[in-house]
Design brief:
Blueprint lengths: L4 E6 L3 E7 L3 E6 L2 H14 L3 E5 L6 H9 L4 E4 L1 H10 L7 H15 L9 H29 L5 H28 L1 H11 L6 H10 L8 H8 L7 E2 L2 E2 L9 H17 L1 H12 L4 H22 L3 H8 L1
Parallel strand pairs: 1-4, 4-5
Antiparallel strand pairs: 1-2, 2-3, 6-7
Helix pairs in contact: 1-2, 5-6, 5-8, 7-8, 8-10, 9-12, 10-11, 10-12, 11-12
Length: 314
């Protein structure tokens, strides 16, 4: 029997489906009824792999329902598909063409199938995302306060007060969720024992980086996007740079590192040593992010809190 690969292009209204190698095409609504219709078709095809792009949450319903039915689903970075399309000379773009390109990408690259998040993890992700949105809105309102006319200052201050109240409530909800889930609480207690890592950072790591504690230091650094890659060609030795990875995790790790370089003795000592060696502050911070991530990865892998790891990492 042929190995069937499915590519699904997700939009707000529809799911455009391409089947390889049979070249079948299908379009269904991006709602529960449409997903059920798609599941009926896929059960008869018995695909080896179903590939979708991450589209800011529009794919969540389809991925959740497909995963619940036991289908092998992989959610990939849209940039990978765009680069693949350019490499194969496919420059035209429609939903049907995109679905076929996604299917061809899946057939050629065979992206890793990762388990879909359970309901609690999805709730935690939603809370973390909402918290980030509120922080962005708070920053924008505080910036407006400094440049706006005094006639609107009262309104802006009231908005800031309301946003700060919502931020505190979300932080409280995050803390409750972490305490109520026994597995999360155990891991969170380990992570937060490291100075610089708080509840929000640990929640982000546990939810958005479930591989933490299961990979080696190079693999976890590359996954987050803090691992420098070579830029060499022939005799030319280029500058090593970091790129890619999970932006949400990297942003939280950056904030944790800024705190850790002041209050965490191991990170502070490492940062000061890099600066004295002539490294630029940005380079030193990135190196400290990688070191902090490596420490946290080892802590979870060994199930040891900071006090137990201190002698190994100082």
């Amino acid at each position: 029997m042929e190995n069937i690969t499915i590519g699904i292009d997700v939009s707000k209204e529809t799911l455009d489906v391409a089947v390889l190698p049979t070249n079948q095409e299908l379009s269904v609504a991006n709602d529960e009824l449409g997903c059920r219709e798609l599941i009926v078709v896929l059960k008869s095809l018995k695909p080896q792999l179903i590939v979708l792009e991450a589209t800011g949450g529009l794919e969540n319903l389809a991925v959740g329902m497909l995963a619940a039915e036991g289908f092998p689903v992989a959610v990939i970075n849209p940039r990978q598909v765009r680069d693949f399309a350019k490499a194969t000379g496919k420059l035209a773009k429609t939903d049907r063409i995109d679905a076929k390109i996604i299917a061809r990408f899946g057939e050629a690259v065979k992206p890793e199938i990762r388990p879909f998040k359970d309901e609690e993890s999805q709730v935690l992700t939603a809370l973390i995302t909402r918290r980030r949105q509120i922080v962005d809105m708070l920053t924008a309102e505080k910036n407006r306060l400094g440049i706006s006319h005094k006639s609107v200052h009262k309104d802006i201050r009231e908005t800031i007060a309301w946003l700060e109240k919502r931020l505190a409530e979300i932080d409280n909800d995050l803390g409750k969720m972490m305490r109520q889930n026994k597995a999360w609480k155990e891991k969170s207690d380990i992570l937060t024992s490291c100075k610089g890592v708080g509840t929000v950072v640990s929640a982000t790591l546990l939810c958005s980086l479930p591989e933490l504690g299961t990979l080696n230091r190079r693999e976890i650094s590359a996954l987050v996007g803090v691992c420098p890659f070579n830029r060499d060609s022939g005799k030319m030795r280029g500058k090593r740079t970091v790129f890619g990875g999970r932006a949400t995790v990297r942003a939280m790790l950056y904030m944790a590192t800024l705190s850790a370089k002041k209050f965490n003795p191991a990170i502070k000592c490492f940062y000061d040593r890099l600066i004295k060696a002539g490294k630029l502050p940005k380079v030193a911070i990135t190196a400290c992010m990688r070191k902090l991530l490596t420490i946290l990865n080892a802590m979870l892998k060994n199930k040891e809190k900071w006090d137990q790891m201190r002698l190994q990492t100082a």
